[in-house]
Amino acid sequence: MQIIIFLLMALGFVLGIVVLVALAFSLAALAHALLPVAKVPFRYTLRNLQVRWKTTLVTAVAFTVVVGLLTFMLAFVNGMNQLTEGSGQPGNVVILSDGATDEAFSNLPGGISVPMFPKDVQTMVRRDGDKFWAVKEVYVIVNQEIANAGEGQRKRRFVQMRGIDDPELAARIHAIELAEGKWFSGRRHEVVLGDGVARTFGKDLGKDHAQPGDRIKIGPRDWEVVGIMKPSASAFGSEVWAQDTQVGKSFGRDNSYSSYVVRVKDPKLAADAAALIKKERSSQAFAAMTELEYYAKLAQTSQQFLYAIILVAIVMAVGGILGVMNTMFAAISNRTKDIGVLRILGYSRWQILMSFLLESLLIGLLGGLLGCALGYLTDGISTSSVVSSGQGGGKSVVLNLVVDTTILAAGMGVAWIMGAVGGLFPSLSAMRLKPLESLR
Amino acid sequence: MPSLLEDLQNNPLAQATLVLSALPLLALLAWAIWQPKLFLLALKNLRRNSLRTALTCLATLVLVLMATLILTVVVTLDRFTTEKARDFKLVVTERWQLPSQMPLTHAHYLDPSSPSFMLDRSEIGPNDFMTWSFYGGTLDPGKMTRENIVFFFVMNPKHIIPMMDDMQDLDPALIAKLEKNRQGCLLGRERLEAINKRVGERIKVTSMNYKGIDLELEIVGELPRGRYNTTGIMNESYFNQELERYARTKGKHPLDSKRLNLVWLRVRDRATFEKVAQQIETASVFADRPVKCETASSGIATWLEPFQSLLWGMKWVLVPAILASMALVVANAIAISVRERRAEMAVMKVLGYRPRQILCLVLGESLLVGGGSGFLAAFLAWFTINAVGGLPFPMLWFQYFMIPTQALFWGLAMGFVTAFLGSALPAWTARSVKVSEVFAKVA
Amino acid sequence: MSAPAIVRVRDVHKYFTRGSERIDVLQDLNLEVMEGEFLGLMGPSGSGKTTLLNLIAGLDQPSEGEVWIGDRLVSRMSEGELAQWRTRNIGFIFQFYHLLPVLTAYENVELPLLLLPLTAAERKRQVLTALDLVGLSARLSHRPGQLSGGQQQRVGIARAVVTDPTLIVADEPTGDLDARSAEEILALLDELQRSLKKTILLVTHDPRAAGHAHRVLHLEKGQLVETARAADETRIKLG
Fold first, then answer.
1. How many pairs of residues across A and B have Cβ atoms under 8 Å apart?
2. Cβ A341–C112 below 8 Å, yes or no?
3. What domains can you pick out in chain C, each with its CATH number?
C-alpha cells in the first residue's frame, strides 16, 4: 500500500512538473502570438488546422467530452454548495442537545426557551414585543412506503419531516415563503411541502408537483397538503413541515425537540451567542453553533464528490492529452519538410516550437469552448443528492445544477492545460528536427 | 463477493461483456489462423509507429481503468439492491422512524433459541437469526477527530459466521475468544491503524450515542480485509451488562428501551418471506412499538434512493463519456495511420489484396490495441486494487469496493467495442482506397 | 575578373563518421566566387556538391577549414547567428521547390520577410516586386497545389530573391522540371544575374543547366578536378 501511495505521489509530482512547464511554455506561446515579434505566420497554423479539419475536429471533440463532463460535474458540486450555503441564515443560531452534531441525533426537552440561556444571550436575541424570535423544531426521518410504486421500482423512500411550533415565525427565521396555499393551523393533520419534495410526491400522484388539497400518506396517517414553499436553494425545499405536536405524536417524539433555532439582532452576534450558550453548563448543557456553520459542515459530502470529480477529470484529461499528442505528432511528421524550409529560411527553433504549441492550444480551446457550451446547457437542471457531514446523519436534498463563470473558467483552464501538455512534447520534437535532414 | 461463475449466471453485464469480449477474440483468433501473414502484418504495423501505438494504448488503459472503477461501484451497489430468489435475509426495523430504535424485548420474540419465539422453528433455525445494536465512541473525548472514533456492531458472537456477509471464512478461534472474553472486540485493519493499536491492546471508549455508557475493550482480533476495514464488532453481553449497571445506579438510560437497532432473519424463499413478514408486522407483541420487515436488498435500496441520480449519472453519463472519448482517441489514431498508409494500401491492392482484407487489416490492428490495453487495464485494476483491500469510496456504510472478477471481461469488451467503433470509419476508408487516385497524388 | 571574391572557401575538409569508419566527403578544398558571378558546380551523385553548397549557405559546418562570405566567417558562427545571417544573405532555390502547401504564392514569398524589421507596406512592395520579376503577378493567391511545377519553382525563386540576398544558391533547380520549364527557369536565373547583379551558385548534373553559368567547377570524390569556361564545357559535352 505504502509503495503504491509513494509511486502515485511520485507520478503526481512528475505530472505536476510537466503541467507547470507546459503552462509556462503555453503562456509564452500566447505572448509570442500576440506580441509584434517575428514569428511563423498565424495563417500557417490556422490553415493547417483547416486543411486537416477532420482530425482537428475529432481531437477537439475528445476535449469537448472531457470539458463538458467536467462542467457538468462541477455544476453538481456547485449546486450542492449553494444549497448548503443557502440553507443557513446569517443571524441564526442552532441549538442541539449536548454532544450532538446533527439534529437527527439531538434530543431537547419540550420546555426549552430563551430564558434558559445566559442573560447576555437573552439580550442578543431578536424580539417582537416580548416574543423572542425562536422556534422549536422536531426533525424526523420517516421510512415511507411509496404510494403507487410500480413493479420493479423502489418501494420505500425516506421522507424528512420537520415539526414546528410556530410556522409563521419559523418561516421568517428561515426566510421561507409560500408559493401556494397557507401555513398549517395545527388543528388538523396538515402539511406544507418544500418545492423539491412537492415534485417527488407529485410523481406518486401522477402530476408535476403536489398542490394544496392533495392528500399524502406519511407514517401512520394521511396528511392534507395546505401549502407549497417557494423554490429556494436550501435544504428545506426537500422537507415536509407540520405542526410540532402532530409530528411528535405520530412518531413517538412527544414533547421532545431536535433543534431550537434563535435569530439574534445582528448577524455579527451569532458566533458570540453560540459560544456563550455552549459555555453555559450550570443548569443544562447544550450544543450550539451558527446556522451557517451547521450547514457548512454538511458540505463535507460535496468535498468528497469534488475529490472524486477531480480524479475522474484528471484521468479523462490524460486520455484527451494522449489523443492530441497523437494528432500533433502526426501533424509534425506530415510537415517535417515545412519545418525544414522554415528553418533554412532563418526561422529559429523557438519560433517553430511556439507555432506548433499554438496549434495544439487552438485545438484545445476549440474543444474547450464546445465543452463549456455543452456543460452550460446543464445549468438549472434539477436533480437529487445527499448532503452530510460525513459522520452519519445527512439529508437527501433536491438541488439545481449551477454553472457559473468560475466553472466555465475551470473548464477552459483544463482545456488549455490539456492543449499545452499534449502539444508540448510533439512541439519539442518539431523544434529538434535538423533542417537538412528534414528536407531529405 | 460473488464468484465469476455466479456473475456469469446472474449478472447481465457480465453476460453481455463476456459475449462482447469473446466474439472479437474468436474473430481475431480465426483471422490469425486463416490468414497468419496478414495477422503478422498487422502486428508489424503496430510496431512501426510504436510511439502512436503506445500513446493510444496508454489512453485506452487509463480510460478503461477509470471506467472499471466506476462500474465496480455501480455494479456492487446494484448487486446489494437486487432481490435474490433464495436464501435471502429479512431485516426487522422500527416501522416509521430513522434511526430504527427498538426495545430489546422485541428480539426475544424473534430469537429461535428463546422460549418466547413466535415464528415457525422449521422455517427459522438458530443459525438464521442475528441482532445488531450500534455503539460508537471516541478514544479521546477531549478532542474528537475522525481518527479516534470507533464504531461497533454489538451482537452475539455466535451469529457472526452464519449470518454476516462475507464472514463465512472467519477463523472460529476469534469467535471463541470473543465469547470467552466478554470485553473483547474485533476491529478492522484500517481502524486499528488509525487509532494506532494492535491486537492484544486495550482501549477505553467514551460513547457518543450512548451518553454515559463508556466501555473498556480488549482487541482480540482483526476483522477480514475489505468491507469491514473501518468497523468493529463487540460482544452484546458486555454492552447489556453496562446498560443494566447504569440503570441500577443512575436510573434507566434514555436509550435503554431503544437499544436494539436491527434484527436479521434468513428466509428460504419468497413465500417464506411473505409469510414471516406478515406474522411479524401484525404481531400484537409489537403493537405499541410497530416494526416493519424488508428484504436486505430493498432496505439498502431505500438508503440508496437519495443517491439514485448520482448513480444514474455515473452509469449513463460518466461511463459513456469515458467510452466516447476513448473511441475518439482510437478513431483519431487509426485515421492518421490509414491516411499515412494510403499509398501502401494502394500498392497492396495492386498486388491483388481484396478490399475486405485491407478492411480486416485496419480493424485487426485497432482491435489488438483496444482489446489488449483494455484487458491489461482491467487486470491491473483487479489485481492491484484487490491486493490493497479494495477501492476506497465511502458511501453510506460502504467503505471499500472490491473489483469483481467479471471486470476482466468489462476491460476486454470496452477495449474491443471502442476500438471497433473508432476504427470502423477509417477501416472503411482504407477499404475504399482508389489506386488511381493515390498514385495520381503521389506522382 | 576585377570584382572581389564574395565567397572564399579555404582548405575545407568535411567528413562524416559512421561507426568507426570515416567517410571523407570534401578534401582540401579551396574555392573563390566573385561578386556577381554565376558559378556552376557539377559532379556525379555523391561527389559532395550538395555538401559544399550547404557549407557555403551556412546550413552545415566544415570539419576543418574556413568558409568566408563577404567579411563574415560563416564556419564559426553559432546556429542562432547563422539563422539570422541566412535570412539576410542567402536565397535558396530547391529542386522540389519546398513551398509550404497551405500558404498562397504571396504568403510563401513573404515568409522570409517576416523575420526582418520591415513595415507591412515595405513587405508588400518587396513581395510584389519579387513576384513581378518572376512573372507571377497574376497568381498571387494561388496555393502551390494550384500551380504547375515551373510556376512553383518561380515562386521559389521569388522567395529566394525577396530579401535581396548577397548570394543565391540553387540545388538542382531544374531537376524536377520538363525541358521547357527548365529552360525558362534557367533564363530567369540569367536574368537575375544580369539585371540585379546577383551572385549565383548553381549545383546541377545537367550540362544544359551548367551551360548558363560563367564558370563551371567539377567536383569528383571530394575534390575540384577541372575548371573550364562554361561555353567550352558545353561544347565538349554536347560534342
1. 153
2. no
3. 37-60+79-238 (3.40.50.300)
**Which pLDDT score is estimated for B25?**
95
Non-local CB neighbours of A249 within 8 Å, separated by 6+ positions: none
Chain A residue numbers with beta carbons less than 8 Å from the beta carbon of C116 are 38
User: From the candidates A6, A139, A386, A400, which should be mutated to test the interface with B, based on the most B CB atoms within 10 A?
Assistant: A386
Q: Is residue B294 part of a domain?
A: no
Distance CA C109, CA C116 (A): 13
- Which of B56, B62, B388 shows the shortest C-beta gap to A326? B56
Phi/psi region, residue C31 (left: phi>0; alpha: psi -120 to 50; beta: rest), is beta
On the 0-12 / 13-18 / 19+ scale of CB atoms within 10 A, C20 is exposed
Long-range Cβ contacts of C137-140 (<8 Å, 24+ apart): C139/C105, C140/C104, C140/C105, C140/C106
pLDDT band per the 50, 70, 90 thresholds, residue C1: very low
Chain B residues with CB-CB distance to A54 below 8 A: 335
What pTM did the predictor assign? 0.84
pLDDT at B136 over 70: yes
Residue A268 has which C-alpha cell? 455579527
Q: Which positions ≥6 away from B76 have C-beta within 8 Å?
A: B398, B401, B402, B404
- Classify residue B405: in a domain, yes or no: yes
Tens of pLDDT along A101-115? Answer: 778 778 888 888 888
Mutating which of B295, B325, B366, B393 best tests the A interface, going by the most A Cβ atoms within 10 A? B325
How much of chain B is helix, strand and coil, in % rounded to 5? 60, 15, 25
Q: Give dist(CA B408, CA C103) in Å, integer.
A: 50
Q: Hey, what's the cell of A147?
A: 404510494
- A439 CB neighbours in chain C (<8 A) are 94, 98
Residues B283 and B319 in one domain: no
Assembly ipTM? 0.87
